[in-house]
Amino acid sequence: MKKIELKYITKSTPILTEKKDIVKSKLSANENKNFWELRGVNLSISPGEAIGLLGNNGAGKTILIDILAGKEKQTTGFITMDAHTSVATTRYGLDKNITGLENIKHAVSSANLDEFKANHVINAIINFSDLGEWLYCPVKTFSTGLYARLSIAIALFVKPELILIDNIFGSLDLAFFKKVSDKIQNLKDVGVSFVISDINVVNIERFCERTLWLEFGEVQDFGSTREIMVQYEYSFGWLQSLTASEKTDYLAKKQSERQSFDVSTIYEEFKVEQFKNGFTRKDEPKMRNAFYNERGADPVKLLADKKNQEKAAIKKKDKRGKGLKVAGFFIVLLLLCGGIYNVAFAKENVWDYIQDRFAQNDSTASSKNKSQQESKSGADSATASDSQSSSKKAKTKKEESTKAAKASSSSAKAASLASSSSAASAKAASESSAKASSESVQKLKDNTQTINVQSGDTLEGLASKYSTTVDNIMKINNFTSNNDLKAGDVIRVPK
């Protein structure tokens, strides 16, 4: 349950005047005086809180209870409340022409509870109220105490959210009052709110965290119950200290103020609040209509709710945009990683190519050097002297031996490269074959059905039965030998 707020609540009641009073006051027969029962009440109630209403008889406590209960409509002001309201009073609420049990069932039915919960609540009220056989008697035969019992029992159990209690504790016997006290505390602990009006200030102190002090329809103070009690007792002592004539004059003055009260003073307070919350002079016709005629939802509350909805929509939009940005960031990151991988793969291929080119260049250079050296040896042999011929031949023979060794090394290197190329080709062929085999097995598995292996089944028998081969059945089920087939197993065979 959300917080309950009352703002600028006033209530006027016409005074019926006699003809002699009209003549004496020079009023027309169609004119009536107004008596203001409430003059600008502001009140807030939090979940799980009990608010006390304190004041002398006629201060306005009862009419405020009736406005909260929906029995009366305020003259001006706004009530912000989304709670189910129950009222416990001896003034109204029960149909006196039907039995107590019928009243209970009618109250439960009005709360629109499901059948299971409704029956549970009815039984709870019957057990709590302890009315016995009186439950089956018409309420008009009840005493004030029995009426009070039934009224507060229904209020405490039928969808309790905001419970209004109006001068009912004094009608309860001590034992039942103790039971009611315990129940009220339990309900407060789970978030149920109370507004309690009682002529006995002890009961206000017992249940209420905060108290509203009313006198002559006007709020004197609103705050901590203990502090309000001190002020109330001080005011009572001051009034009692007046002489009879002083007291008469004081009361006459206060009653006159209730008749001459100008409600426009409350409207001015309302306007100031509106202007502080963003309303302008252009909004004043709407403000006046809301204050005097509509008397529904508080315009400030409506504006705040609208702003909160707009903020929530913006927040949701920003959250969605943030989510898209994060998704975009990850997509870009993935693309970037893919690009880096491709570049790295390309660089690796280029490096392999460069290495191959260097190997080819080395082989070509070795062959060219060999040819040049052989040509030079031939020229030297033709022009050399006979004395140097044998020496040159020995030298040439040595060089030829060296060149032959180099050629052998080059051939070995070439053979090594060829061997590597052959190994790579063999590996590629092996991978291709394995891939083809895997795809073939997968194709077999895709077009299969499951069977239960019976006692005496063999791979050859199953292959013949399902028009396939033993090898296919072994591939599909990853068998390594005929011994893998066992009775009771579930295997797959071609359809």
Automatic annotation (TrEMBL):
SUPFAM superfamilies: LysM domain, P-loop containing nucleoside triphosphate hydrolases
Record's compositionally biased regions (Low complexity): 366-391
Superkingdom in the source lineage: Bacteria
Organism for this UniProt entry: Liquorilactobacillus mali
Keywords recorded for this protein, A-Z: ATP-binding, Membrane, Nucleotide-binding, Transmembrane, Transmembrane helix
Positions of region (Disordered): 362-410
Protein name as catalogued: Teichoic acid translocation ATP-binding protein
Start and end residues of each LysM domain: 449-493
Molecular-function GO terms, alphabetical: ATP binding; ATP hydrolysis activity
